[in-house]
Amino acid sequence: MATERSLSRLIDKLKLQPFGLKQLAEKLEEVLRNYSKGEFIISYRGKELNLKKPAIMGILNVTPDSFSDGGEFLSIDRAVKHCEEMLENGASIIDIGGESTRPGSEPVPLKEEIRRTIPVIEEIRKKLGDKFFISIDTYKSEVAEKALDAGADIVNDISGFHFDPKMAELVAKRGCPAVIMHIKGTPKDMQKNPYYEDVVREIIQYFEKTIEDAKEKGVKEEQLIIDPGIGFGKRLKDNLSILKRLSEFKVLGLPILIGTSRKSFIGAITGESDPKKRLEGTLASIYASIIRGAKIVRVHDVKETKSFLDILLAIEEVNC
Fold first, then answer.
1. What DSSP character marks residue 217?
2. Phi, psi torsion values for 93, nearest 5 degrees
3. Active site residues
4. Angle at CA 2, nearest 5°, toward 255 and 21?
5. Tens of pLDDT along 299-316?
């Protein structure tokens, strides 16, 4: 237990000591600097998104079987309209996915995922312009490459570059931002008795290794965004522990994305079986995330989330 001031004093003293304590001081200094970092900037294709204030990532699933909105936006026209609505309601990023990764889901063939996502990205760029960010929710490098060619800006990989070894190389080559998420197992089997001794510590270790591996393949650290993967190979208590201890991920010095929207852990607590009726629980989890350092929230209900964040941030920022 220590305050930032006491840690700073300790670092100064360790720097003067032998036996490798100077190196320890340097590591502590780096961690403290990372933990205190409050502003991040995402940039690509001449666009910038300042994350001093939290940003909203709106979910656009062009799938027939997503757990909450499967089949609603399969037509290109409906997908474009929903994208437009989310932008008008306050989304800064639109996350487009062509494969459901709900627990127990089967992988979608490469060609089918491309067929679902690429025409939508092309039409959104054609109809709505290029002033906002689009992320492609995929773990397949070929899908990600075609999406970037079509106008996407961010790769959102639930596997953290682990399912497709070429993904990190693609992100390095294109210089685009990328979300690396933690998952235990695969979507098909991830909820079959997952277990952790210390879920937050183990996820931080996963990210440290993943970041180093990505850097060895040419990815720059400032390209990366971390997502601890709520619901992806996690028990109820794991999800709650991640939210309660989210600030610990700040030691990595990267923007934190959190995705709790409508998820089953909310239903497990509230008893609400209909994902679309889990808005209140979603907003409660967003509050817990934001006050502990989350910089991007991935949600279905953009309008309600924007109003909620406006009030929350107004309260937190007032000088009194």
1. T
2. -130, 140
3. 263, 298
4. 90
5. 999 999 999 999 999 999
What's the Rg (C-alpha) of the chain? 20
**In sequence order, which residues have a C-beta less than 8 Å from that of residue 33 and are 6 or more positions away?**
253
Q: Report CA-CA distances (Å) from 67 to 147, 236, 250.
A: 23, 18, 30
Mean pLDDT score, 52-70: 82
pLDDT digits (tens, 9 = 90+) for 145-204: 999 999 999 999 999 999 999 999 999 999 999 999 999 999 989 999 999 999 999 999
pTM of the prediction?
Answer: 0.93
Query: Residue 270 — φ and ψ, nearest 5°?
Result: -90, -20
d(CA 120, CA 97): 10
Estimate the crossing angle of helix 166-174 against helix 141-150, to 10 degrees: 20
Listed in sequence order, the DSSP H helices in 102-258 are: 110-128, 141-150, 166-174, 199-216, 236-244
At 86, which helix (H) or strand (E)? helix 76-88
Answer whether 165's CB lies under 8 Å from 121's CB.
no
* 8 A C-beta contact, residue 274 and residue 288: no
Enclosing H/E stretch for 50: strand 47-50
60's enclosing H/E stretch is: strand 55-61
Using the structure block, give the residue that is written with the tokens 């995330």.
Answer: 289
Tokens of 144: 């990600």
* Tokens, residue 294: 């989350």
